[in-house]
Amino acid sequence: MTNLSLYTTTAVLVLDTDGNRLLAKYYAPTHRTGGDVIGATPGQKLESVKEQRAFEKGLWEKTKKGGAGDIILYSDLLVLYKPALDLIFYVVGPASENELMLSSVLNAFHDAVSMLLRHQVEKRSMLENLDLVLLALDETVDDGIILETDPTAIASRVSRPKADTSDIVINEQTIMRAFDIVKDRVAQRIGAI
Q: How many CA atoms lie within 13 A of 111 on its CB side?
C-alpha cells in the first residue's frame, strides 16, 4: 500500500560524533490520535525526551561506524544519515516512505547548512549559528511535511542580507553638505522663535 500522506518525515536529527544531540526535531501530525508518531510501532512513540534520547543513542550506536552515509531500517523506521566532520545528520521517516524523498530532504538540509556556515560544517560553527540552522530546518520541513528540497532556495530565505556599504562615499564634500544642512535648520529654528 502506498503512503499518500504529506507527513513524510518523522524526525530530523543532528548528533555529534559522541552521540550527543545538537539538534532534534520530532514531528507528529496533529490529526493523529493518541500522539502516534508516523511510522512508529505501537510500543515506540518517541513522545518523551527519555524515549527520544534512547532512540538517538541506539541510532548513533548503529551508525557511528558508517562511512559516507547510508540508508538503514532501525526500529521499524527508515533512517538516512550523512556524516560531516564531527557531526552526523539524520532524517527519519516511516518504513513505507520513499527513500528518494527522504534522501532529497537530507541532502537539501545538509547542503543549505553548508552554504550558511560557509562550508565549515562542524560542531563549533553549528552551535555559533544555531539560529540559522534551525531556520533552515524549518524552511526544509514543517511539521513533518517537506516544503523545499532546493538548498540554494533554503539558504537564500534564511541568510542575513549583508549591508551594502560600497555605495556610501564619505568625503569632505559630503561632510560640508551635512554641516550646511544642519546650520540652515538651526538658523530656521532660531528665526522661528
A: 15
Instruction: Return the C-alpha cell found at 38.
Output: 508516523
**Confidence band of 166 (pLDDT split at 50, 70, 90):** low
List Cα–Cα distances, 98 to 26, 71, 185, in angstroms: 19, 11, 69
**How big is the CA angle at 148 (ends 48 and 18), to the nearest 5 degrees?**
45
Q: Distance from CA of residue 163 to its chain's centroid?
A: 24
pTM, rounded to two decimals: 0.73
Residues listed for the chain: 193
Beta-carbon count within 10 A of 160 CB: 8
Specify the 3-state DSSP secondary structure of 66. Answer: coil
Burial 19-45 (b: 16+ CB within 10 A, else e): beebbbbbbbeeeeeeeebbbbeeeee
Amino acid at 77: L
Q: What cell was used for 12? A: 530530523
Which grid cell sits at 141?
Answer: 520541513
Q: What would the pLDDT profile of 76-101 be if each residue is shown by its tens digit?
A: 899 999 988 889 999 999 888 888 99
Under 8 Å between Cβ of 151 and 112: yes
